[in-house]
Amino acid sequence: MNRVVRSCAGLFIRPRAALTSVLGEPHRIGFGLLGPVALAVVYFAGISAALAMGVMHAPQSPALRISDADYYAYERFYILPVGIAGTVMAAGVTRLLAGLWHGRGRFEDLFALLGFALVAVAVAMGLPDLVLAVLAGLGVPGLLGWMLSGPHIWLGTLWYAVLTVLAVKEVERLSWGKTIALAAAGLVANGLVQFVFIR
């Protein structure tokens, strides 16, 4: 357990070393599942708190046809499968494209690192959203806008992009230019999955 906590903290302190340490783990797929699970738990709590306190904002994207009134009640339950599906898509697209450039990685390793990197999203975005939801429910005005576009959203997104680049570099062992291109393709694949289901 101590190793897991150190690896999670390492995502913010020494991210490349943290990702490399996960590659050395015999059960690295478990680390890959840890990120989507952490994200799902944090957002389940945040959405549940916001629903209970009556402070949910209207969903942003009409991609999934669930009524605005019911959307968040359902979203809590499919954040985990969507997180896993997005990670699978990102790892799959990245691995297929890396093969064209003779990358040396494996799908399982990409899945492990990209999934594990979602721990950073849970901490940087999910925890602030949980706190903002509770504070909004307690009557602090003006916080719903922060839940949609606050600095924690940009920080979490940017940090996940950085971690994605580092993960691809560690697994595929390609030049930085190719690594960044592959990471961008993986991020787009993950983003498409997220766009359909998460508002």
Automatic annotation (TrEMBL):
It comes from the Bacteria. Residues 10-198 form the Yip1 domain. InterPro entries: Yip1_dom. The chain crosses the membrane at residues 33-57, 77-98, 110-138, 144-168, 180-198. It holds the Pfam family Yip1. It is a multi-pass membrane protein. Keywords: Membrane, Transmembrane, Transmembrane helix. It is found in: Membrane. This is YIP1 family protein. It comes from Actinomadura luzonensis.
